[in-house]
């Protein structure tokens, strides 16, 4: 089985998400924007600075709309087209909406997105350029999510909410499959990603488990998630702490500012199964990590995406990492919200 | 020869710029940010709108720092490292400087960039994140160029000015090589790119001529360059018009606002050899083209990069394009300067 799959992947002329078709819940990919196939960039200067054996950045900013979310969208639009839908919807702090809008524009599908009122002007500008139908919701991401689900079911649009449509996480999983292939079928020791609803790290976890189950790798990496200190419900739940009641707390990392995570069970299970951890990081630590990714890694990450490196720097305080090979998933690169 | 090269390219496991090593002026690529290997996205909705047989976007926004300039930088840093330089420099309206800063950060090379005072805040933020040494010059791009060359020769830094260091255009040429490979070794009828100093379209022209000379393709495409109506010295020279004297004219398309183009002879020769054209487009036509690229093509281009599609829409007025296959090179995707 492992041999067959490895040969399939080696010989498939496709790049990116659809290279993994045998492991995806779709019969036929739609043509359109090519998602995935992003580089795994080794960053020796940053590895030395952090004190790791090896450090890689999975540079998801090189997706069509600059974000890992394009992997889920590629699967979502394939399913929507196959099932004859003419319109799609999602709720989003910006990145998922932009991703959906780009794919829908290219294919001529209707695109209806629901974003919170905190959405930065630069993100609204992307949505405008893609010609999306944008509803700026008066509330936060959580209330935009409710409004989106309501409108989607009323109008019969296809859902691109990863936390609602379980097929979409299968797209996100392909980032894990690529990391393993790029490391010549060796799982790294640690894989770090930021956590909002939990879909991305949950998807990565599923990907790594599937690789091991199929015999393509001989183990799964420890998964380390990170949340903003100001909005960290999953960290609290993972550690058994009481929920945050003071909602005056906040974060500039809008992309992960989710107070009611909808893929909590999935992501907590994946982290536990991997022997991993969930870590809160303050906004200023994210800003420092963002500067390090740029000045020593040559990659510009959005603030929320730098939470992963911030978590790695926190982890270093409590355990030795000198022999470790780590992968930081740089989920997005849109910096319009922190200048 | 064609057979050997085609087999080399097919079997080379590398992606991107260094896949073309036999046609590049370097012995050994440096590790680092992987440039090139960008998708050629077919956009049937936009083709129908424009009235072309087929239209493709060469999506250079998917380079490491979002710009075609990374192809030149990849070659430049390889040469600098091979020759033992520890520092590099360039003049730039933003994109080339950002590209150089990203590669230098990743490799630990000193990076000294000279940008005009019109450089938007978003671009300065990228340079800050990459930790570059930035000189914001009091004048425009042309005077920043002079300052950069002066400082570079004084300090013994390696030049990443494509219009000064001829090896760098060889990196840009790889975009043409990729286009031909992606079209299964058929040259398209038309290839369009924006023109500032002239290095990018000049490099594309060299690439297509080289492909034909090697027998990899059986013809060269017509090259169509575009400049902003407010700053269009090369269009005037190409058409035999008198130079622009009223420098009050200007453009929001900073990336191509070059009053004294330094690769004029190269680019004019390439355009002439291809039977091509050079077209001026007003800023509002660029803005419309930018919106079309987004809403029908799913690609967000910076304003200056949309000049190519604007030129195609102008060309449509004067000649029938119904049987034509065209490639629009979307050179960059940083939209911080037009919101």
SS-derived structural category of chain A: alpha/beta
Would you identify the regions of chain A where 5 or more consecutive residues have pLDDT less than 50? none
User: Mean of residue pLDDT of chain A?
Assistant: 93
Oligomer: homodimer
Number of strands of chain A: 10
How big is the Rg of chain A?
19 Å
List the total number of helices of chain A.
12
Query: How much beta of chain A, percentage-wise?
Result: 15-25%
Tell me the helix content of chain A: 40-55%
Topology:
The structure is a homodimer of 339-residue chains.
Chain A: H1 2-11, E1 40-42, H2 44-50, E2 54-59, H3 69-82, E3 87-91, H4 95-107, E4 110-116, H5 121-129, E5 133-137, H6 141-155, E6 158-159, H7 167-182, E7 190-194, H8 199-213, E8 222-228, H9 233-239, H10 264-273, E9 277-281, H11 283-297, H12 307-318, E10 325-330
Helix pairs in contact in A: 3-4, 3-7, 7-8, 8-10, 11-12
Task: Please describe what this structure looks like.
- The structure is a homodimer of 339-residue chains.
- The first copy, chain A, has twelve helices and ten strands.
- Chain A is an alpha/beta fold.
- Chain A is globular.
- Chains A and B meet through helix 4, helix 5 and helix 11 of A and helix 4, helix 5 and helix 11 of B.
